[in-house]
Specification:
By secondary structure, the protein is an alpha+beta fold. Strands 1, 2, 3, 4, 5, 6, 7, 8, 9 and 10 form a 10-stranded antiparallel β-sheet that branches.
């Protein structure tokens, strides 16, 4: 199991037993999550925006329109990215010990602007197939103009850590006798029934990979 180097920024200081620095755990969380929050500097002020993300090997990718202000501010600059999966509400017997079960990853790195069209196209294929495996081979790929209008940034997953909380509430010993319900309310991400586009030709079958959305949630 490959381990990421622990740095001062990635060292989990609060409840360090919840910290993970192995790539297997970090990658699994990144792959399961659909949304990342990107922290960057804008006009000398801190800013955070959500965006979709994906991973290939030891690199994380984000993308958007070529005029996207966040991407322009982030490219070539040090940024931080966080993804979080909410797994449950932890209801304790005291207000202080209420918590949540979660899996999260924080990455620090410098964003590289992908300018090579072939590399950009390959990255976008991975993104599409992350959402719906096999989708890329069915759709029309981006043309030259669309590819030019798309910016893709690559961030190395070299300085990163995961943090995980799981299990029941942990109360003060004297509170376990209180007649108060305590436990965990699981939170699961479940996709609804697919709604076909109004202009979909009659008889177009529903792809098998639609079920993938629900599998990703678990």
């Amino acid at each position: 199991m490959s381990q990421l180097k622990t740095t001062e920024r990635t060292r989990v200081k609060r409840l360090p037993d919840r910290g993970r620095h192995d790539r297997e755990t970090v990658n699994a969380i990144l792959d399961a999550a659909l949304i990342a929050h990107v922290a960057y500097e804008k006009d000398g002020e801190p800013a955070v925006l959500p965006t979709a993300h994906w991973r290939t090997g030891d690199t994380l990718y984000i993308h958007g329109h070529s005029k996207n202000a966040m991407l322009h501010a982030a490219r070539g600059k040090p940024i931080s990215i966080c993804v979080t999966l909410l797994d449950g509400l932890v209801l304790a017997r005291s207000g202080f010990h209420h918590s949540i079960n979660y899996r999260s990853v924080v990455i620090y790195g410098t964003a590289r602007d992908i300018t090579d069209p072939n590399e950009k196209m390959a990255a976008l294929k991975v993104f599409t197939d992350k959402i719906a495996p096999g989708r890329w081979d069915e759709i029309r790929p981006p043309n030259a103009q669309e590819l030019k209008a798309t910016m893709v940034l690559a961030i190395p997953i070299e300085e990163a850590s995961a943090k995980i909380r799981s299990g029941p509430p942990v109360d003060d010993e004297q509170d376990y006798a209180l007649p108060v319900w305590a436990g965990v309310v699981p939170i699961d991400r479940i996709a609804g029934v697919a709604v076909p586009d109004d202009r979909l030709p009659k008889g177009t079958p529903l792809p098998d990979y639609i079920d993938h959305f629900n599998r990703m949630g678990r």
